[in-house]
# Entry
Amino acid sequence: MRNIIRMIVVLAIMGAFSGGLLAFVKSGTAAKIEYQQLKFVKGPAIKEILQGATNDPIVDRFKIKDGDVDRSFFVGVFDGKADTVAYETFGKGFGGDVGIMVAVNLDTDQVIGIGITTHSETPGLGARAKTDETFRGSFKGLSINEPFKVKTDGGKIDAVSGATITSKGVCAGITASSEFYKKLKPQIIEKAAAFAK
Amino acid sequence: MAIKEKTNTQLFVDGILSENPIFRLALSMCPAVGISTSVMNGILLGTAVLFVQVCSSCTISLVRNYIHPKIRIPTYTLTIATWVTVIDLVLAAYMPVAYKAMGLFVRLIVAFAIITMRLEMFASREPLQKSFFDGLGMGLGFMFAMMVLGFVRELLGSGMILGYDVLGFKPLLFFVLPCAGFFVVGIMMGFFNWIEVVYKRKKEV
# Structure
């Protein structure tokens, strides 16, 4: 009986030590790991759509609570003014959710550019949305406040040929995002201003 | 026991040469075959294993008098898993490219035979200092073996060393394929055995 108690106590103490050590390391590295993941998963899309920004948008980011979800915003500084934010939104594609990074100018509400972050679309068809310049370019300059539609639906977006569902999904995703953009805009402007240089 | 008479230096050197984990003890062959396709991979995984081996050996050696024999395996697992998670998090935070290249293998260190075996055979019986040198030797021995394997496979398979093109052509693509791992490990193991035979014969003469 004494042995059993001793075993339990020893194991419990070691477990507690391990737990403490891991908690310490985890809290020490959490911010760094988040940064690395942003850099490698979303980084390329952010860099591309915020081309010419004088800061590092992945470093200059902030979060805003929207109901239950935390939304991340990446700030782009152009000519010393922090007037552009990029955020991620999701649309229903052909093979699942498509992650879309949208950059919006805070003064004019115009879309600066979009990029695809994660997707599981068909290679060669839907997956081309990620690289198709005409498709992505046709979002530029449009106002985020108006619904985005492909040309066959009476809108202004050139759909990727052979990938209508993906194109519509991206449009729907961005259209849906304008809702929380509008709602959070005052907070976004306030927080983004802190990054101006 | 023979182990007790060894000095720290001997323990250290033995781990690298005469008791090399891969070539002599034939332990942890899974990573040896799986990930030794380049020198860099060998160095990276070797470093991770070195860290886990040294830390686990020291931990177990420190608490060895309190561990009841019946719970030694859970204790080993707990210790190793803790240190592996530490290195896993640190790599993910500071060396993301290396972390990506090694994929699942960092977490798999938990199951590497060499670490558990050293804890069972050595650290659970010996004082801290000796366990430290044993762990260091074993870890470096593993790293050395992985680098040798990586060197041969990278040179012959893709004609490169550490990512630099040294040959300018690819001699045998076969060597970067998984099955070549067995092939190279086998040949190197034979080579090390042969060296020892020659060495012993010279000693006798």
About this structure: Chain B touches chain A through 21 residues (CB under 8 Å). The beta strands of chain B are 160-161, 164-165.
